[in-house]
Design goal:
The complex is a heterodimer of chains A (119) and B (882).
Chain A (H helix, E strand, L loop, with lengths): L14 H10 L6 H11 L7 H13 L3 E5 L9 E5 L1 H26 L3 H5 L1
Antiparallel strand pairs in A: 1-2
Chain B lengths: L3 H7 L5 H21 L5 H27 L4 H15 L1 H30 L10 E8 L4 E4 L3 H10 L3 E15 L5 E9 L3 H5 L3 E4 L13 E5 H8 L9 E4 L2 E9 L11 E4 L15 E6 L5 H18 L1 H4 L3 E6 H6 L2 H33 L1 H9 L4 H37 L14 H28 L2 H7 L7 H35 L10 E7 L8 H16 L4 E7 L10 E4 L14 E7 L3 H5 L3 E4 L12 E6 H7 L9 E2 L21 E7 L14 E5 L7 E8 L7 H11 L5 E6 H44 L1 H9 L4 H30 L15 H27 L3 H7 L1
Parallel strand pairs in B: 4-9, 6-8, 15-20, 17-19
Antiparallel strand pairs in B: 1-2, 1-10, 1-11, 3-4, 3-7, 3-10, 5-8, 6-9, 7-8, 12-21, 12-22, 13-21, 14-15, 16-19, 17-20, 18-19
Helix pairs in contact in B: 1-2, 2-3, 4-14, 5-12, 5-14, 5-15, 6-9, 12-15, 12-17, 12-22, 13-16, 14-15, 17-22, 17-24, 17-25, 22-23, 22-24, 22-25, 23-26, 24-25
The chains are: A mainly alpha (119), B alpha+beta (882).
Chain lengths: 119, 882
């Protein structure tokens, strides 16, 4: 698996990956903090901790996230998850893409579409 | 309960790189989530998440490894082991089932042991709590109750207790708004009771210093009763309930685990002083809290001194009376402890046998696989690699066994609770929990190591080159020696268990054949308590009971009816008192005390307890008539060894037990004539010998709490509705409680013995089965190993029956040595059973002989099949294979 191509262009983001990026662009966080923010955004839907860490691990492999030193680090020598420069690029691009989709859907729904005419 | 260390430990299951990146953060995540209470399944759910993630990642890595030619060595060991297990389903099945039995039995019994014996009491510093009793060796009285005056002296003059409280468990009636009566277990306590116990109320308050003598009577509810009766509504605090006709304020609720005595429904404060009666009226119980750090022995010695001072000052009432104390926890657990410890030991033996069985199976297989191992070594595999392979395989077996064992344990615990004696203490706390799971994991891992070591040891000592040359088949060598040792051990252990089971079965037979002094079948019993509101005067009490008995006897199917203050083998209160026989002196060493039991005319008839001399009570023996009494055979033997007590006169028996009523109606009865002798009845338990007892006529006593017995011609339980209806017609405010057949009472009295006997019997059978599997496996394997040799013998003309005999002899030699070793162990261990046995010597030869015969038969049967197979060997095939 060592020779597989890696990088921002290798694959699109899954929804959970995008949400994690969205959480972390505000600043680095622990896994627990990420999970809480996600639960808020997913309207209470819970992410299994094991799954969350597997996604985080994958995103680190892809160079989207990196370990950041925790300013309040205790003896546990834990680090925070932070977005890499690459991650920021991907997040921006993905956001623009989604905003485009969202605008399309929005205008489609609010314009006088065929469905509304028939009514 | 939160256990971060477990998550950290389990994070070792994660692949190294993943753990380095996320391990600490993940452990912290789980710790915080469990602490926040959001994790639905608690700490074990979190543990499962870590373990699951680790396994998933490793599985993927493993799949990757196979595809790309790499992967973890451990993982390949696991895969290889899994293939080996699946390839030999019979071997794996037997091994896993064996382990499951061993682990499951241990987990089930340990669950009970943990809840009953190991978990601390729910009270604050519960290990400082002790119960106190009076004791009189001359009278054979132990753990007897204390009089209020003596208790007061105990409390004020001791030097070793931080505090001490008295309580008196009794029953009462709570009347609902609609007038429906409910019988409840009421505990009268001194005002400091809850302080002494270290109990904190759930709602409201407990009793305080202002609730002592002279204060208004108030009530604290037990959580169980509060849930049942008031639906757990906290607003009951501050309201009133009607107890025995008196409206009383409810001031608080105390939690279930802090409910003591454990059947209490509510507590009410003693509003009287301790100077109400003479020192002879012993009816209160006492609990104390030791001063911090005081050993039990010191407190015990202190209390003996206190009692001696009281005795010196009051020789009349206190001669020979001293005190005894014991930890509350010990007391709550009672003699269950011995039984449970024995059962735990038995399951430990089962586990050892299971280990030996599996080790033997593995050894047999290791022998078969020795070629494989040798080839692997020849190709350069280090032995450490093979050792790891074998360890992984045995751990996998252990893990599978543990999983199956947990299922068995879950079922087992449920079954245990069904079987358990009615009085199994602290039953409400018994459940499989995290601690038990940890114990199971630890036990399984160590069993895996234990039985995995045998083949490894063998592997390490083996000359592998010879193995290659022999193609996996050799003469019974070192491996066989180990296997033989295991079979010997199995039979030895099985014999120990079977002897234990045999002794208990024998003892239980004895218990069943004990003459209880009554005939239980066909009798229905029910308790009744007349409050002063229902029957204000003494004569109202006797009238009520007489009338109720008469009306019941008119019901169809009823043969005879009577009531008594104490039902044999029940937990009814007993009245133990001095007596005096007019114009007669007894030698001073003969203590003139006896149990007093009030029985209605008709009671002895209904119980089928014969009057062996003189006459029974009848209608004439009522209030106003001359006083009469009956005595039991033990009384007659002890006090009138030469002559007969009939015609002797007992002195004044007037005595009033506070709210309980009077022993003997106060009227004109100054003396009571003994008119008959009653056959001995076992009152205090089937194993307890009868003690001197005096029966008084129920029509001449106003004791308010009695048990009605009804003998019927058909099934007694059919009668219950009619009994209730009749009572309601007489007075709707009286409740019938504890309705049960006398057969149930008898079964309850036998339940503890039945429990131990049944369980140990089951364990004995399992041990026997495992031992049989063991000897069969070894012999079958030996026959296979010796196929060539046997083939040659047969080809050379050996008699087939001689060959069969040879194999059988091999088997029986092992069995014989095992039994010999087992006999020695059993001989020394059996004395630990002594307290559990009735009428059986722990070294009863008959039992040992019986067990040996059974085990020999099992050994022969298990050896016979392989022996038969040996004689069917076709010499040509056998030699070709060679």
């Amino acid at each position: 698996m060592a020779d597989r191509p890696r990088g921002p262009r290798s694959a699109a983001l899954t929804r959970i990956e995008f949400l994690i990026l969205a959480v972390l662009v505000r600043g680095p966080s622990h896994g627990y903090g990420i999970a809480q923010a996600l639960t808020d955004r997913l309207a209470g839907e819970r992410v299994r901790p094991g799954s969350l860490y597997r996604v985080l691990d994958r995103m680190m492999d892809r160079g989207l996230l990196e370990a950041v030193d925790d300013p309040e680090a205790s003896a546990e020598r834990r680090s925070l998850y932070g977005v890499t420069d690459e991650g920021l690029v991907v997040a921006r691009r993905e956001a623009a893409l989604l905003r485009g989709f969202a605008d399309d859907i929005q205008s489609e729904l609010s314009s006088d579409g065929p469905r509304l005419k028939g009514a | 309960m939160n256990k971060p260390w477990i998550y950290r430990m389990l994070s070792r299951l994660l692949p190294a790189r993943f753990r380095a990146r996320h391990g600490a953060d993940m452990a912290d995540f789980h710790a915080r989530e469990v602490a926040s209470g959001r994790a639905r399944s608690g700490w074990w759910g979190a543990s499962l998440d870590v373990a699951w993630t680790g396994m998933g990642l490793r599985l993927e890595a493993g799949a990757d490894g196979i595809l790309n030619g790499g992967g973890s060595m451990w993982w390949s060991d696991v895969k290889y082991g899994f293939r080996m297990l699946v390839k030999n389903p019979l071997f794996s099945g037997v091994a896993i089932l064996t382990l499951a039995l061993g682990i499951g039995a241990n987990a089930a019994i340990y669950t009970v042991v943990e809840a009953v014996l190991l978990e601390p009491l729910a009270f604050e510093d519960g290990d400082e709590l002790v119960l106190l009793w009076t004791r009189n060796d001359e009278l054979g009285q132990d753990k007897y109750m204390v009089s209020p005056m003596d208790f007061d002296d105990w409390r004020t003059t001791n030097n070793t207790f931080a505090s001490m409280a008295a309580f008196w468990p009794t029953t009462g009636t709570v009347t609902e708004d609609d007038g429906n009566p409910t019988r409840v277990n009421v505990v009268y306590t001194t005002e400091d009771f809850f302080d002494v116990m270290g109990a904190r109320p759930l709602h409201g308050r407990a009793f305080g210093p202002d609730d002592g003598p002279g204060s208004p009577q108030i009530v604290v509810l037990a959580e169980g009763f509060w849930e049942r009766r008031f639906g757990g509504d906290p607003s009951i605090v501050g309201q009133r309930i009607t107890l025995d006709g008196n409206p009383l304020d409810v001031v608080g609720v105390v939690s279930g685990p802090q409910t003591f005595p454990d059947n209490a429904d509510l507590w009410t404060n003693m509003t009287w002083t301790m100077q109400i009666q003479g020192r002879n009226s012993r009816w209160m119980s006492a609990v104390g809290r030791l001063s911090p750090g005081t050993p039990l022995e010191t407190a015990s010695a202190d209390m003996v001194t206190v009692a001696a001072r009281i005795e010196e000052a009051n020789p009349e009432s206190n001669r020979g009376w001293t005190t005894s104390i014991d930890y509350l926890q010990e007391e709550m657990v009672g003699d269950t402890k011995a039984a449970l410890v024995i059962l735990l030991g038995a399951t430990g033996l089962i586990l050892l046998i299971a280990c030996a069985t599996v080790a033997n199976l593995l050894l047999s297989r290791a022998e078969v696989r020795s070629t494989e191992m040798a080839v692997r070594v020849a190709f350069g595999a280090p032995r450490s690699r093979l050792v790891r392979q074998l360890l992984v395989e045995s751990s996998m077996l252990a893990a599978a066994g543990a999983l199956a064992g947990l299922i068995i344990a879950q079922l087992g615990v449920r079954g245990l609770l069904q079987l358990a004696p009615v009085t199994l203490p602290r039953e409400e706390t018994i459940a499989l929990d995290g601690t038990v799971l940890l114990v199971v994991v630890a036990v399984s891992l160590s069993t895996g190591l234990l039985f995995g070591l045998a083949p490894i040891w063998q592997l390490l000592r083996k000359d592998l080159h010879t193995a290659i040359r022999r193609g996996g088949r050799g003469s019974a060598g070192r491996g066989a020696g180990l296997q033989h040792t295991f079979v010997i051990a199995q039979f030895a252990l099985a014999l120990v268990l079977a002897v234990g089971a045999g002794l208990l079965v024998r003892s239980f037979q004895n218990i069943r054949s004990i003459d209880s002094g009554f005939v239980a079948s066909g009798v229905l019993t029910a308790e009744l308590d007349l409050s002063p509101a229902v029957a204000p005067e003494d004569t109202d009490v006797t009238d009520f009971y007489e009338q109720y008995a008469r009306r019941l006897s008119e019901l169809p199917g009823v043969e005879s009816v009577g009531d008594a203050t104490t039902l044999p083998l029940s937990e009814n209160l007993d009245y133990f008192q001095n007596f005096r026989i007019l114009d007669r002196e007894f030698p001073p060493e003969l203590e003139t005390r006896a149990y007093f039991r009030m029985v209605q005319p008709g009671f002895l008839d209904a119980m089928r307890t014969p009057v062996v001399a003189g006459r029974d009570f009848d209608e004439r023996d009522r209030n106003g008539a001359p006083g009469v009494a009956l005595v039991n055979e033990t009384f007659a033997r002890r006090f009138f060894p030469e002559g007969s007590p009939i015609g002797e006169r007992l002195g004044d028996l007037r005595g009033r037990y506070g709210p309980l009523g009077a022993l003997h109606l106060a009227g004109d009865i100054q003396e009571s004539e003994i008119v008959g002798i009653v056959k001995d009845v076992r009152y205090d338990g089937l194993r307890v010998d009868p003690v001197p007892s005096i029966y008084l006529s129920g029509l001449q006593s106003s004791l308010r709490r009695r048990t009605i017995v009804v003998r019927t011609v058909a099934d007694p339980s059919v009668l219950v509705p009619a009994m209730r209806r009749t009572l309601a017609e007489m007075n709707a405010g009286v409740a019938l409680t504890r309705v049960q057949t006398m057969n149930d009472v008898l079964a309850d009295a036998q339940s503890r013995d039945r429990f131990s006997t049944l369980l140990l019997g089951m364990f004995g059978l399992v041990a026997l089965l495992l031992a049989a599997v063991g000897v069969y496996g070894v012999l079958a394997y030996t026959v296979e190993q010796r196929t060539g040799e046997v083939g040659i013998r047969i080809a050379l003309g050996a008699d087939r029956s001689a060959v069969r005999g040879m194999i059988l002899k091999d088997g029986l030699r092992l069995v014989g040595v095992g039994l010999g070793a087992g006999l020695i162990v059993a001989f020394f261990l059996s004395s630990t059973l002594a307290t559990q046995l009735y009428g059986v010597d722990p070294r009863e030869p008959v039992v040992y002989l019986g067990v040996v015969i059974v085990l020999v038969v099992v050994g022969v049967a298990a050896s016979f099949i392989p022996a038969l197979r040996a004689t069917r060997i076709d010499p040509l095939t056998a030699m070709r294979a060679e």
